[in-house]
Design a protein that fits this description.
heterodimer; A: 260 residues; mainly alpha; B: 309 residues; alpha/beta; Rossmann fold; four-stranded antiparallel beta sheet; 10 helices; 11 strands
């Protein structure tokens, strides 16, 4: 009984290590395949459209509402200390440092990541990936690499858009509805938000999240069991693993960037 | 009479496991393509399989299989579902690696080739997948043009002409603008066939091409496979469990069961084979060496309460 349990635990551990190894081999294959998108930039542009442009609506709307909520909540807290004029810096710093990269990554994992997993999983289930291999075309370089770099490049752009729209949302609520001075809102933001410490660190975070979210999505699709149930499970795993990885990595990156 | 090998014993006509000699069949020296059931082409061996074994976990999929695929012939591998036919194709094309044995395609050991050498070899092979495996985001024209765009520097005008000729060969020149979702199953397979021959391969492999096809589509595919093989000088390997269609066009048949070759020969020889297993498969008998019932305890044990039986 005990030995059976230990054997199961061992098998499960070995299976997890094997998956981890396959995931890293896939990542290496995609990174080494960068030559493919340099030769055929059209492949990358198509994926930037699929992952980036088609996610703009959900990112824009979410950014607007998150910014509006930040404006509202921030105003009530700051007003208690007579610091309502600092609303601009509070909204901008929150968005650029944390909410922009993190919420964008979660939204991209849900919208584009799940789509990538399902697409690659279905291509595997319908033998399209095997068909490419039989045509002497490497599916990792031809299909996965453009999607990987598309996701990595789209993520910081979408996060920047999320933050920009969020700031406008905060401005609308704080200045437009609650009467905060417009000049103070913008000037404090300009003087207190640091380019390197806030914006560059935010961009670094979103690039890391872009790598992780797209990598997880593509690996789950590529490693899925080629059945309808297998693809469905892989899609769920893709979103769950990506969300957990983003939140965990956010803590680590924040500690590294802003810790003493 | 075709050579055959019941699971436990081996007649002399089947090559010994691991032997480098091909099977000795009465008509081995004769030549000339005959699509019905007569002698098979006596060309050189293009694909040589020796002692091939493959496992999935603890399940033995193929066990010490020997085969010779001759140049210019249509060679069919037949057997019930789940006997390792598709696995055999994947091993020949290097999509899977065997646990034991060797596979040589035109003298090249597929099972030991590196990725780039394997890809070079695959440019000389075409494969028709059971599902067609068309790229769903490309239309018919672009699907057929895909391997040409990947592996040649042809200009748009020449590429267009070649693609249209390939589509004309399968009767679908008029469907070039359709998307895969707009094709019937038979049309999708014909498009996939046009794509498989786009690079003028030496070998073409068919994975269950007749499965799920209506009689008209089946007839078209049967004719196409034979005509393409003869007109383009191909070597065809056909995996199927459709007895009549396959026997009509094959020059040589291998019958496999439980991962082992149990009979081989021309369609006429296989038709004359009297072994119980071959007869059950070829005549579609519901019971025989392959039992109708999956192994189970007596029915009474399952239906009656314990102790009442």
């Amino acid at each position: 009984m005990l030995l059976d349990g230990l054997a199961r635990l061992g098998r499960s551990g070995l299976g997890a290590l094997e998956r981890l190894g396959r995931a890293h081999l896939l990542l290496a294959g995609m990174v080494l395949g960068i030559g493919e998108i340099l030769r055929r930039p059209g492949l990358l542009i198509a994926q930037l459209f699929n992952i980036g442009v088609l996610s703009m609506l959900i990112i824009g709307v979410s950014g607007l509402f998150v910014g509006m909520v930040l404006g509202l909540q921030g105003y009530y807290v700051l007003a208690q200390f007579g610091a309502a004029e600092s609303l601009g810096v509070m909204v901008a710093a929150s968005l650029v440092r944390e909410l922009g990269p993190v919420v964008t990554a979660l939204l991209v994992a849900g919208r584009a990541g799940s789509a990538l997993t399902a697409e690659i999983g279905l291509m595997k289930a319908t033998e399209q990936l095997s068909g490419l291999e039989m045509m002497a075309v490497d599916p990792v370089r031809r299909i996965l690499t453009p999607r990987f770099f598309g996701g990595v490049l789209a993520m910081p752009l979408l996060a920047a858009m999320f933050s920009a729209v969020g700031v406008l949302g905060g401005y609308f609520v704080g200045v437009g509805l609650l009467g905060v001075d417009s000049g103070s809102f913008w000037s404090q933001m300009q003087s207190k938000v640091d380019f390197h410490e806030d914006i560059v660190n935010g961009v670094i975070k979103s690039v890391v999240f872009g790598v992780v979210v797209t990598w997880i999505a593509l690996f789950q699709g590529h490693d899925s069991v080629p059945t309808s149930e297998g693809v469905s499970r892989a899609t769920t795993r893709s979103v769950v693993h990506a969300a957990l990885a983003v939140l965990g990595l956010d803590f680590v990156l924040t500690a590294l960037m802003f810790g003493e | 009479m075709g050579s055959r090998r019941p699971r436990a014993t081996r007649p002399a006509a089947v090559p010994a496991v691991g032997s480098s000699e091909p099977a000795a069949t009465p008509d081995a020296a004769r030549s000339g393509t005959s699509p019905d059931n007569g002698p098979r082409p006596g060309g050189e061996v293009l694909v040589k399989i020796r002692g091939l074994s493959f496992r999935r976990g603890t399940q033995v999929v193929l066990h010490r299989v020997d085969m010779d695929i001759r140049r210019g012939a249509v060679t069919a591998v037949m057997g019930p579902s789940g006997t390792g036919k598709t696995t055999l194709l994947k091993l020949i094309t290097g999509q899977l690696r065997p646990d034991a044995g060797s596979i040589e395609v035109d003298g090249q050991p597929v099972h030991t080739l590196g990725k780039s050498a394997l890809f070079r070899l695959r440019r000389r092979m075409g494969m028709l997948f059971q599902s067609g495996a068309l790229l769903t985001d490309l239309n018919v024209f672009d699907n057929v043009a895909y391997p040409l765009r990947e592996h040649t520097d042809l200009g748009p005008s020449m590429l267009r002409k070649l693609v249209l000729l390939k589509l004309e060969a399968v009767g679908l020149r008029g469907a070039r603008d359709l998307m895969p979702s707009e094709l019937s199953g038979g049309m999708a397979r014909r498009v996939a066939l046009a794509r498989a021959i786009a690079l003028d391969p030496d070998i073409i492999l068919y994975d269950e091409p007749f499965t799920g096809q209506d009689p008209i589509s089946k007839g078209m595919l049967v004719t196409l496979i034979r005509q393409l093989n003869d007109a383009a000088g191909l070597t065809s390997i056909l995996v199927s469990h459709d007895v009549d269609e396959t026997a009509r066009i094959a020059d040589h048949l291998y019958v496999i069961s439980h991962g082992e070759v149990i009979a081989q020969g021309t369609p006429r020889e296989i038709a004359a084979d009297r072994s119980a297993w071959v007869r059950q498969f070829m005549d579609g008998l519901p019971d025989g060496p392959v039992h109708f019932h999956y192994p189970a305890p007596p029915l009474a044990d399952d239906l009656l309460p314990r102790g009442a039986a």
